[in-house]
Amino acid sequence: MKIIQSFVREHPLCKNVLWLLLFVPLFFLSQFPLITMVYSLQEGVNSESVTIFTALATAVVLFAFYRIIKMSPLENLDVRVITWPALGRNFLFLLLLMANNLLAYPLLKQEAGGTTANQAALNQLQSHAPFLAMGMVVILVAPILEELLCRAIIPRLIFRGAEPIGYLAGALFFTYLHGPSTLGEWVAYGGMSLILTWVAYRYKRIEYSICLHMTLNALAYYYPAVLLLCLLPVSRVFFHDKL
Hints:
This protein is an all-alpha fold. The protein has helices spanning 2-10, 13-30, 32-42, 47-71, 84-112, 117-126, 131-158, 163-177, 183-203, 206-238. The longest helix has 33 residues, at 206-238. The chain is globular, with a radius of gyration of 20 Å.
């Protein structure tokens, strides 16, 4: 063991290679909650059990990633960096992401009826999956793990010493994960990836891009519920004298 540690210290590039080898099992591990949910649905498991199984898989995977990040040279994840100024800045980037979607929409409308193949598959899954289980996968698992893989591990561990190239590689990998096959899909996912990558690169905290990604997914998949939550305080004030 000491010989290996000494060799790694003398050859820093070995650390990059080790993280590259570790990346493959980490990627498959990140898919475990989704696979658990899909398999449970295919087996005809009731909604409550699907939600429980998905929650357990989510907890295990998130804890595993947390421990791995904690043992890595990366800084520990800290939600306290999400301050009000950071949220305000993220809101501006959220508007930019929405503008990118508007830019891609005419192309998607012409090519595939206004949606991507990836989005259509998720919509189909959402129509069968329990609300909470789908929420865990879409709003927790996907944003956290995709950001850690594509905008932390790839650029800052695998490409350590060449981080700018690593951020571009991570952005391309993120886009590829979403399976773009048309120009509209490349604009939609490529533009989204570049914006999230810029946030992580510019501000050097992966928490910012995770928060932005989570917000975008929440709006995309549960916008009726989000809209209701936003309107609830207004409705309570408006109807206060009438109830």
